[in-house]
Automatic annotation (TrEMBL):
<keyword id="KW-0464">Manganese</keyword>
<protein>
    <submittedName>
        <fullName>L-rhamnose isomerase</fullName>
        <ecNumber>5.3.1.14</ecNumber>
    </submittedName>
</protein>
<dbReference type="InterPro" id="IPR036237">
    <property type="entry name" value="Xyl_isomerase-like_sf"/>
</dbReference>
<dbReference type="GO" id="GO:0019301">
    <property type="term" value="P:rhamnose catabolic process"/>
</dbReference>
<keyword id="KW-0413">Isomerase</keyword>
<dbReference type="GO" id="GO:0046872">
    <property type="term" value="F:metal ion binding"/>
</dbReference>
<dbReference type="GO" id="GO:0019324">
    <property type="term" value="P:L-lyxose metabolic process"/>
</dbReference>
<dbReference type="GO" id="GO:0008740">
    <property type="term" value="F:L-rhamnose isomerase activity"/>
</dbReference>
<keyword id="KW-0119">Carbohydrate metabolism</keyword>
<dbReference type="InterPro" id="IPR013022">
    <property type="entry name" value="Xyl_isomerase-like_TIM-brl"/>
</dbReference>
<feature type="domain" description="Xylose isomerase-like TIM barrel">
    <location>
        <begin position="72"/>
        <end position="223"/>
    </location>
</feature>
<keyword id="KW-0479">Metal-binding</keyword>
<dbReference type="InterPro" id="IPR050337">
    <property type="entry name" value="L-rhamnose_isomerase"/>
</dbReference>
<dbReference type="InterPro" id="IPR013457">
    <property type="entry name" value="Rhamnose_iso-rel"/>
</dbReference>
<dbReference type="Pfam" id="PF01261">
    <property type="entry name" value="AP_endonuc_2"/>
</dbReference>
């Protein structure tokens, strides 16, 4: 196995974008519990996200969701973020909450509805220009509930046409990432259900169109690291929405349900050249904290990603390759498992301290009094417009 010291410089490159909506109240269709101190404005969400970065040095940017984070002046919002030590990142479009989109958005049979959805993306691109954001992330709720309800081929063709118009509008240094999800809210078919469809759609657009992989958007038992490998191999992995799930799109804390899966994913990311500042693969969280404290939940999340990244980096790839080539099945498996079973927490704590951070970010945040202060200051916090 490699030594922790040998991988520490790579760890310093890690950046994990936080979703603004993780800081709002969220829940299920059964109940949304409120949390004291919940942000009331996009500015307060950004201020909370900045706390996560302050204690972990892992999350220098915050993703916005439009219109959930609608403001009058995005350049001013960007300046506000900078003052708090973070930048504004990915802009997420939202075509899943208007009545107009009941039967689809970019795939709709009515050209006027499609244009409304395209115009919303143009507005998102204008926001990106004001905030300096690189990525436009598109997730579509489009789909049908019953066989025969829609012409699934026609919908795919209209999707391509709509995406092309959006892609043509993004700037030279901007990218479009298309997220897939196997079901929900549509249950019979979804227009972008899997990586293959997302790949086919973005490949037809051009180099700056890529796939976004949300770890919670696969059927149980799916080998997600295989998809990671394939997309990296094809040069089309643009970004991750990290979270974890037991059943469907649970949006639980990444690495909480299955840290081994997160390790396997990160191992393939590293293997495929998807790790590091220049890799072009953006790490993001896409989570909700329904019953736990949100800022502490985000701190736990980025630390989970960091821990599994460190373990993935520890794998002795030369020895692994030799074992693989020699047909040493158990030897190869053992090399991977050695790295996975290594508790990197003490090394990470010491390394943080060497960089002027608290060894235990969770404890440092808890001791700061920030949570009590926002609970006292903020009354009537915002509900994230997103249930389960
Ligand atoms: C859809 C999704 C998508 C949305 C977010 C709130 O399930 O993963 O990324 O933008 O949740
Ligand atoms: Mn997502
Ligand atoms: Mn999701």
């Amino acid at each position: 196995m490699k030594s922790f010291a040998a991988v520490a410089t790579l760890l310093a490159e890690q950046e994990i974008e936080l979703p603004s909506w993780a800081f709002g109240n969220s829940g299920t269709r059964f109940k949304v519990f409120t949390t004291p101190g919940t942000p009331r404005t996009p500015q307060e969400k950004i201020a909370d996200a900045a706390q996560v970065h302050k204690y972990t040095a892992l999350s220098p940017s915050v993703a916005l969701h439009i219109p959930w984070d609608k403001v009058d002046d995005y350049a001013a919002l960007s300046a506000f973020a900078q003052e708090h030590g973070v930048a504004l990142g990915t802009i997420n479009s939202n075509t899943f909450q208007d009545d107009a989109y009941k039967f689809g958005s970019l795939t709709h049979t009515d050209a006027a509805v499609r244009q409304k959805a395209i115009d919303h993306h143009f507005e998102c691109i204008d926001i990106m220009d004001a905030t300096g954001s690189r990525d436009l992330k598109i997730w579509l709720a489009d789909g049908t509930n019953y066989p025969g309800q829609g012409d699934i081929r026609g919908r795919q063709d209209r999707l391509q046409e709509s995406l092309q118009k959006i892609y043509d509008r993004i700037g030279e240094n901007q990218r479009l990432v298309l997220e897939y999800k196997f079901f929900e809210p549509a249950f019979y078919h979804t227009d972008v259900p899997d990586w293959g469809t997302s790949y086919a759609q973005v490949a037809a657009l051009g180099d700056r169109a890529l796939v976004c992989l949300d770890t919670g958007h696969h059927a149980p038992g799916t080998n997600i690291e295989f998809i990671v490998m394939q997309l990296l191999r094809l040069g089309k992995l643009g970004s991750f929405d990290f979270n974890s799930r037991f059943y469907a799109d649970d949006d639980l804390i990444v690495g909480a349900a299955d840290p081994f899966q997160l390790f396997r994913i990160l191992f393939e990311v590293v293997r495929g050249g998807g790790y590091g500042a220049d890799s072009g693969v953006a790490f993001m969280l896409d989570q909700c904290h329904n019953v736990e404290d949100k800022i502490a939940g985000q701190i736990r999340s980025v630390l989970n990603v960091q821990e599994m990244t460190a373990r993935a980096l520890l794998v002795d790839t030369d020895t692994l390759k030799a074992a693989q080539d020699a047909g040493d099945v158990l030897g190869a498996n053992g090399i991977l498992m050695d790295a996975f079973y290594t508790d990197v927490r003490p090394d990470l704590a010491a390394w943080r301290e060497s960089r002027g951070l608290a060894g235990d970010p969770t404890a440092a945040y808890a001791a700061s009094g920030y949570q009590a202060k926002i609970a006292a200051d903020r009354v009537g916090g915002q509900q994230a417009s997103w249930g389960a």
